[in-house]
Structure formats: structure tokens, C-alpha cells
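Notebook, bench 3.
Goal today: get a predicted structure for Lipoprotein from Pedobacter cryoconitis so we can plan the truncation constructs. The sequence was checked against the plasmid map this morning, with no discrepancies at the termini. Length recorded as 264 residues. Pasting the sequence as submitted so the record is complete.
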Amino acid sequence: MKLSLVAIALIILSAGCSQQDQKVKNYTPRTITKNEVFNDFPTNASDSISVLTNSEGKAETFGAKFRDSTVHIQTDPADQSKSPTKFASAQFINKQKTALLVQVADSSGLVPRPFLIAVKNGALEVVSLYRPSKGKEDLKFSKGVKKIGATGYLVNNDFFITNVTAKVYLVKRQNPDDRIQGDVLLMSPDKQTIVFAVKDVLYQVNYRTDEVVSEPIVAGSPKGDEAAFNKWITDNYAFEKNKSGNTFLKYHDDNRIVDMKEFK
């Protein structure tokens, strides 16, 4: 009899744990505002976000949990069934684990959909990292979350998120209606200017000040070989600080006529 009672208790406990594991909460993403910071410090341990790892299937996916609930992101406000919980990537952007950068895992073939899951004043919110774009080659150049060294993350050529401080900058576009139609090439030594190779120019944007420079790519650059092109750029261009204190790449022509005023 005692064994039966113990068995029943274990079944009830197991069912309760199973229900708790399956507890979920839907979050409707809000629109991000310019230069927001997501660096809250938790008042207690439960204010931190947990990352769940799922190794089932062909590719590893991730989930997010806040307190006792798995996070569902309702990507379509009119349809609760469109609430993905699986992410292709998930990385914390601050040390206290109150801001998580995720990218929805799907096979739609569309532009990647990144979101920020963040704690603010003890409450969880989801923020959409999306800006409308009419670019003809958005699918080619929108590569989701791209880590840029230890400095931060570039998101679909539209946002730059600083690591540790968790500040989100809107990257100034070359054309206001289009996402930057090029690949990121490198960053300036001061880690503030992002250089994009866009057709026949190096489009450069200081994400902190919004100052931009378009430096022409001179004739003679290698075509079709990314490594050779990158080396050619570093051999023929150099970063220089301008009058406003921002650093940009400039072409250096060894055969140019030097004006002696440059040495005064």
C-alpha cells in the first residue's frame, strides 16, 4: 500500500514538473528606438535570462527562458500560432545576462529575423531589430547577426550592438529607403567606423556620430577573390582621422604630386 502511494506521488510530481517545463509565455515585439541601451542589472537571480539548447534535428537550436516560462515571440500580432521559440543563434550582449540577441530559426529563405530579449525594471520584453527596406539585393546582403570581433554585432547591415554595454545603434544607410547593399569589409582601429564594400565605393559610417564617407574604389582592384580584394584594400588604403575626429579609409597614391603645404 505504501509503495502504491509513493508511486502515485511520484506520478503526480512528474506530471507537475512536466507541466512546469512546458509553461510558455507569448511576447509581442515592440519597435526599437534610436540608440537604446539594454544593460539592466538584476535585483535578484530570477531576473536573468536562461538559454536552452536543443540538439535534436539536423542543426542545433536554442530557446530562451525567463523565470519559469519559455519565451515565445509572436512575430505576427494577428496570429498567435506564429510564435517561434527556436532560435538559430542566441548570445548574451552583457555580462549580467539580462539582454539576449537571438535570430529566429526557420527555413523560409527570407531575410533573417533577429530580436532582442531583454529585462527592464524586472520585466521581460522583446524588441524587433527590423527596419523596412526596398533594396533590390536585400536577401543577398542581409546576413542576420554577424559578430564583429570583440566589439559587437552587426545585424542585417542596419544595427550595430556594442558588446558588454549592450547599446543598439541604427547604422546610417547610404540610401534611406534601402538596407546597405554591400558586405562589411573591416572596422577602423578605434572600432567606431564600419567599412562596407558597395559596388565601386567603400561606404563608411561612424555608427556613433552618423558621419559617412564614400571613398571610391580605384581601378585595379581584384575581382571575384575576397581575400585578394581585402589585401589590396589594406595595401592601398589607410585610415586617417578627419577634422571632426572620426576615422575613415582614404586611398594613398604613391605616385601623386605632394603639395608642400601638407608638411607645414
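The longest helix spans residues 2-21. The first strand starts at residue 24 and ends at 27.
Flagging this for group meeting.
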